[in-house]
């Protein structure tokens, strides 16, 4: 039987925020930095750092809220995609989340694309819906990068926080609200942002060797990442707009990955997007990697900024290096 292609709607959101807060003054007691130094260079004032919460705890909370806000039950969910670079289990955490929320018929898997992860996962989910395979998909962006921060490195430890956000994507026979997208990678710049495996060779028998070790800490070439972002993000957004047959003037909101306020402002300026259309919560949460876009989206919805039918441009960018953009119209079709 031939599958009937359907449209995609993004109908609800949810988020999970860590209660433990580390502000800039706290950090100044750990490394040689100051509130003014951090705010001037990044725009960050605070970051929320997980203590007893696992990645699965945060992701499950965000998913459950999104499901409730969609007026669905976990039994209605066909698929769960977890965008994360910091799973609780290196084999993947999505299946555990499926069990935790009781989504008994859902297939679940992790997707790793660092700070681009949520955008890539959203686009991936849309393909399963458009091809008529699944009806309801939960897309989660969640990260606990504080686990992998070098707290003696003031260039990176000031940046990262923890959190989770989620959306429910649903099939529609009446139209498609994922209007356009574009995804890109450039592995030649991989060394600009890393959380790399560090191993040592061990002998296990006559002329037999293995490499065993662990992952290190986050390292970053800040200048290289900044140049990459301010050049590539406007370009990928323009490509997505072309695919959507839209102009920038027809966009209601811009939600970028919350990496650095200077990057957000530079991208908006290059695209001629006024500041009142730019959604940013970076000062409160820091860089939460794959969680940053759905966290900002859910917060804007909670505050009544975004309304049904608004056109939103999202763009993620980061390690890999990867970057991408997705343009969608919020909410159910009339």
Gist?
This protein has 334 residues and is of the alpha+beta class.
Describe what you observe in this structure.
This protein has 334 residues and is α+β, with helices and mostly antiparallel strands. The protein has 2 domains: 7-178, Peroxisomal Thiolase, Chain A, domain 1; 179-188 and 219-329, Peroxisomal Thiolase, Chain A, domain 1, CATH 3.40.47.10. Helix content is 30%, strand content 29%. It contains 10 helices and 15 strands. The protein has a 5-stranded mixed β-sheet with strand order 1-7-6-4-5, with helices on both faces. The protein has a 4-stranded mixed β-sheet with strand order 8-15-14-13, sandwiched between helices. Strands 2-3 form a two-stranded antiparallel ribbon. The longest helix is centred in the C-terminal third of the chain and has 23 residues, at 222-244. It is globular.
CATH fold description of the largest domain: Peroxisomal Thiolase, Chain A, domain 1
The major pleated sheet works out as:
5 strands, mixed
Order the strands across the largest sheet as they lie in space. Answer: 1-7-6-4-5
CATH architecture of the largest domain: 3-Layer(aba) Sandwich
Could you report the average pLDDT, rounded to the nearest whole number? 94
């Amino acid at each position: 039987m031939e599958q009937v292609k359907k449209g995609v709607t993004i109908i609800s959101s949810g988020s999970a925020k860590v209660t433990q807060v580390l502000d800039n003054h706290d950090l100044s007691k750990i490394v040689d930095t100051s509130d003014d130094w951090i705010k001037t260079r990044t725009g960050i004032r605070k970051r929320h750092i997980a203590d007893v919460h696992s990645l699965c705890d945060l992701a499950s909370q965000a998913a459950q809220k999104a499901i409730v806000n969609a007026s669905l039950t976990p039994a209605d969910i066909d698929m769960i995609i977890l965008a994360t670079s910091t799973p609780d289990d290196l084999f993947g955490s999505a299946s555990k989340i499926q069990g935790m929320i009781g989504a008994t018929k859902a297939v679940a898997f992790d997707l790793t694309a660092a700070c681009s992860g949520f955008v890539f996962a959203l686009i991936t989910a849309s393909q399963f819906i458009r091809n008529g395979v699944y009806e309801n998909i939960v897309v989660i962006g969640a990260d606990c990068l504080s686990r992998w921060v070098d707290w003696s490195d003031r260039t990176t430890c000031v940046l990262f926080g923890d959190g989770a956000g989620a959306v429910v994507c649903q099939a529609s026979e009446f139209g498609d609200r994922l209007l356009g997208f574009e995804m890109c990678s450039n592995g030649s710049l991989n060394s600009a942002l890393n959380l790399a495996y560090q191993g040592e060779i061990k002998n296990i028998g006559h002329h037999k060797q293995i490499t065993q070790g662990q992952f290190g800490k986050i390292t970053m070439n800040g200048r290289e990442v900044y140049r990459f972002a301010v050049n590539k993000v406007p370009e990928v957004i323009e490509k997505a707009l072309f695919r959507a047959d839209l102009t920038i003037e027809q966009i209601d909101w811009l939600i970028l990955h919350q990496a650095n306020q200077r990057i957000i402002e530079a991208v908006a300026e290059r695209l001629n997007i006024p500041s009142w259309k730019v959604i940013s919560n970076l000062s409160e949460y820091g860089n939460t990697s794959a969680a940053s876009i759905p966290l900002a989206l859910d917060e804007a919805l909670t505050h009544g900024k975004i309304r049904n039918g608004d056109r939103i441009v999202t763009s993620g960018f980061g390690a890999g290096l990867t970057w991408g953009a997705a343009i969608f119209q919020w909410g159910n079709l009339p």
